[in-house]
Design goal:
With 406 residues, the protein is α/β, with parallel strands linked by helices. It contains 14 helices and twelve strands. Strands 1-12-11-7-10 form a five-stranded mixed sheet, with helices on both faces. The chain folds into two domains: 2-25 and 195-383, Glucose-6-phosphate isomerase like protein, domain 1 (Rossmann fold, 3-Layer(aba) Sandwich); 30-190, Glucose-6-phosphate isomerase like protein, domain 1 (Rossmann fold, 3-Layer(aba) Sandwich), CATH 3.40.50. The structure holds 5-phosphoarabinonic acid.
Length: 406
């Protein structure tokens, strides 16, 4: 993975302070250690799911579903996978009914994933599915030790797997939460972790990623008042759900009240897909308020060389320069052209290039974003890992639910 920064930053002292803080944080925050974990118990568990199972349905929301979905949707177009993954993440009745209509329940295993074990969306959906299929053997539950869900799963005699200690929901993709569904689908989870580990070593071992990530984090933190909207502009449809994962990670981690201060701060994530969004959001970046930074993500080798045919269309001869061009080249030329256009406007930007669509590159990319989030959180002086702001709405809903007269 290559990361080219188009902005300059000199302050070494702030960078070094952030690095020391993050190194210290490894003692208390669980996600940092995930790339080195031993996955043998996950692989042993995967072997217990019979080959007759063709579908894996995840019931979970937020950090309990977005990471696995991002990786699955990234890898799916390039690899013949063993099983299909489905994600029940919404209380939208049409979505639940549509997803269920695609599943043969006899050939489906359900993974109910909830760290807290009490999430309303997850359990309303689970209750509905359980009313259609109440065999505990077709369910595996993933939760924190001691949660109400653990007790429930044990009561019905279903399998329970656990999250490692101190791993927050949105930082849990490389734990059981993401690895179990992905392993069941046939994705190479060891390669995923190896990619993340390579990036980790480059950062903590003072390699190329240390300097790059620190510079980028300091830039975001320093300019968080002016450039408070951070767009990812990914030039591949395979990265659509990666963008959703990024939006949750960045938004839920970095929108907070500062420690020892009355100020609310926040960086707003936007996920864009090129070239589609060149025909929509790009105008706002180019000519709108100067409050956005952009990170382009490119894939060097799509491993698909379909080519625009050598056909001249009457009255459209001006488009003949497209003839014989591989689509993979066209999309990257489009990305380069937009980068040049934004540079002319002095929009702060950087570009990440990944060599191919594979597990290792996605592991590295996700770990890169997790580290970046931790660094920026440290530099803007907030608690990156809590989410008090989402609690109020949940309490109000709970009150409404208990006062319902049916
Ligand atoms: O990052 C987080 O902590 C949240 O987005 C959670 O992942 C989300 O609320 C789901 O929670 P749970 O896994 O407890 O059901």
């Amino acid at each position: 993975m290559k990361n080219k920064l188009y902005f300059k930053l000199k302050n070494k002292k702030v960078q070094e302070e952030a690095f020391i803080a993050i190194k210290k944080e490894q003692k208390t925050i669980g996600y940092y250690a995930l790339p080195e974990q031993d996955i043998s118990s996950i692989l042993t568990y995967s072997e217990t799911i019979p080959d007759t199972i063709e579908n894996i349905a995840v019931i979970g929301i937020g950090g309990s579903s977005l990471g696995a979905k991002a990786i699955y949707e990234f890898i799916k177009p390039t690899k013949k996978l063993k099983r299909k993954l489905y994600f029940f993440e919404s209380t939208d009745p049409l979505n639940i009914t549509t997803l269920l209509s695609k599943l043969n329940l006899k050939k489906t295993h359900f993974l109910v994933i909830s760290k807290s074990g009490t999430t309303i969306e997850t359990f309303s959906i689970y209750k509905y599915i359980y009313s259609l299929q109440n065999n505990p053997k077709v369910y595996t539950f993933i939760t924190d030790p001691g949660s109400p869900l653990e007790k429930y799963a044990q009561e019905i005699g279903a399998t329970v797997l656990y999250l490692p200690k101190n791993v927050g929901g949105r930082f849990s993709v490389l734990s059981t939460v993401g690895l179990v569904p992905l392993a069941l689908s046939g994705i190479n989870i060891q390669a995923l972790l190896d990619g993340a580990n390579k990036l980790k070593k480059s950062f903590f071992g003072a390699g190329y990623m240390k300097d790059t990530l620190l510079k980028k984090a300091v830039f975001y933190a320093r300019h968080h008042m002016q450039y408070n909207i951070n767009c990812i502009f990914a030039y591949s449809e395979t990265l659509k759900y990666f963008c959703e994962w990024y939006v949750q990670l960045w938004g839920e981690s970095l929108g907070k009240r500062q420690h020892h201060s009355a100020f609310h701060v926040g960086l707003t994530p936007i996920g864009l897909i090129g070239p589609k969004d060149q025909h929509s959001f790009l105008q706002l970046i180019m000519e709108g308020t100067r409050n956005k930074s952009v990170t382009f993500i490119k894939i060097e080798d799509f491993q698909d060389e379909i080519v625009i045919p050598d056909i001249s269309l009457p009255h459209l001869e001006s488009l003949d320069s497209l003839n014989t061009l591989p689509f993979s080249k066209l999309i990257n030329m489009q990305c380069e052209s937009v980068i040049e256009a934004l540079l002319e406007e002095d929009i702060p930007l950087d570009s990440i290039t990944i060599s191919q669509v594979n597990e290792s590159n996605m592991g590295a990319l996700m770990y890169y974003y997790e580290l970046l989030t931790s660094l920026v959180g440290e530099l803007i002086d907030i608690n990156t890992y809590d989410q008090p702001g989402v609690e109020t709405g949940k309490h109000i809903l709970k009150k409404k639910l208990t006062s319902l007269s049916r």
